[in-house]
Design goal:
The protein is an alpha/beta fold. The chain is 54% helix and 9% strand. It has one domain. It contains 15 helices and eight strands. Helix 2 packs across helix 4 (60-67) and helix 2 crosses helix 5 (76-87). The two termini are 29 Å apart. The relative contact order is 0.15.
């Protein structure tokens, strides 16, 4: 699996340019750069990226999080558009995280059934619309070829605006109920690590319409015993498990975006997360290293964009 470690670390080329680092910022840091500019200005971050051949990675979750105030009456023109326009002046690469688990599981099934090496999928896409899925987004909106702010404006004007920008608030009650159930199983000793993983993977496969092999039990063992297989799903799962085991940690609406970002860490070189989630990533990374993980993913996580720029020039 040494080749896998190299796969995740080597620079990659886009239109003849070697990209040194792919950087995924949480919405807090994106807003800091694009709007507040108290610690890092848009111009300074733009220079940091371009001078070092780095790229900012955007995914559906972060852009929707930035735009979520629209669900609570915020002005698109005065509040959201300036942020999106500032972000789009930066060198950007888009990553599709919404079906990442399905893509990873299909790659693992292919390797398992063909007795071949697991090939990490490539979750990068050409445009922001390519990152999207859901009601009204599969060809239902005229958003192809538009600027990022115009895409969000069309989504805001659509009949699905509440579903798109208010999703995290609507799903919070369900998320908390799921957490209650998970914690009860953990407390009752019914969700030991391997059993928990074996229960969750088929559910994720079903959600993402990923076919599992006939000998599902052997396939689950194949994935479980090597953390380099389905690394985004595995990191997400271990973080969620650590969160569930911490009875003093109450689920928050922002967890949806944080967990989405965590699932993409194997496919980027740096990410910013708050202290709470950084702690969970550290715990999850230690567990993954025990089952052959080629990378300590905690090394890719930073407190904020200021720390990242100081350490990764």
């Amino acid at each position: 699996m040494k080749m896998l470690a190299l796969e995740f670390r080597i620079p990659f080329k886009i239109e003849g340019t070697v990209i040194c680092m792919r950087i995924l910022l949480d919405s807090r840091d994106l807003i800091e750069i694009a709007e507040h500019q108290n610690r890092v200005t848009t111009q300074a971050f733009n220079s940091f990226l371009r001078d070092n051949n780095h790229e900012l990675v955007l995914c559906a979750s972060t852009v929707k999080e930035i735009s979520s105030p629209l669900a609570h009456g915020a002005s698109f023109i005065d509040t959201i558009r300036p942020i999106l326009q500032a972000i789009e002046t930066l060198p950007i690469r888009y990553l599709k995280e919404v079906d990442l688990f399905g893509v990873e599981i299909r790659a693992a099934v292919n390797a398992f059934e063909n007795d071949s090496a697991y090939e990490p999928p490539t979750p990068y896409v050409r445009t922001y619309p390519d990152t999207l899925t859901g009601p009204g987004l599969d060809g239902g909106l005229p958003i192809i070829g538009l600027r990022l702010d115009d895409i969000i404006f069309e989504m805001y004007r659509s009949p699905f605006s509440d579903q798109i920008f208010g999703a995290r608030d609507q799903q919070l009650a369900t998320y908390r109920q799921v957490m209650i159930q998970e914690r009860e199983l953990l407390q009752n000793g019914k969700y030991r690590a391997r059993t928990h993983f074996a229960n969750v993977l088929p559910r994720r496969a079903a959600t993402h319409h990923a076919r599992l092999p006939a000998n599902t039990a052997d396939f689950i063992d194949y994935v479980y015993l090597d953390a380099n297989r389905c690394p985004g799903f595995r990191l997400y799962h271990e973080v969620f498990r650590s969160l569930a085991k911490n009875l003093n940690d109450n689920p928050e609406a922002g967890d949806f975006v944080d967990l989405a970002l965590i699932s993409t860490i194997p496919y980027v070189d740096a990410v910013t997360l708050d202290r709470r989630m950084r702690t969970y990533v550290e715990q999850a990374s230690r567990k993954m290293l025990k089952v052959n993980a080629a990378v300590n993913y905690r090394d890719r996580v930073y407190e904020d964009v200021s720390e990242l720029m100081r350490q990764r020039v």
